[in-house]
Specification:
With 90 residues, the chain is mostly helical. Helix 2 packs antiparallel against helix 3. The relative contact order is 0.14. The model has no long low-confidence stretch (mean pLDDT 90).
Length: 90
């Protein structure tokens, strides 16, 4: 499931669709940066990583209000897997 399918509105104008695609790309870039930072920064604590994830969720929902389910289906599992791998969480 792609985020595009989740947030794409029916009946949007071409300009609105372009704006939405821009937001989606921005969100993907932000999430990738958070994931890379957590994966690569050896000095990052589990609390700091958890706060980064919480902040990224808040930012994503500010960009796409009402899309909690989409976040939970797309990004939460990725962050959970990353945290398990990075911090050896069971």
């Amino acid at each position: 499931m792609e985020l595009n399918e989740t947030v794409q509105g029916v009946g949007l104008s071409a300009e609105e669709q372009a704006q939405e695609q821009k937001l989606i790309r921005r969100l993907q870039m932000m999430m990738n940066m958070v994931m890379q930072t957590i994966a690569q920064d050896g000095s990052l604590t589990i609390d700091e990583a958890s706060q980064m994830i919480a902040d990224s969720r808040q930012a994503a929902l500010a960009m796409f209000p009402g899309k909690e389910l989409a976040y939970d289906l797309i990004w939460r599992p990725r962050f959970q897997r990353l945290m398990r791998e990075r911090f050896r969480i069971m």
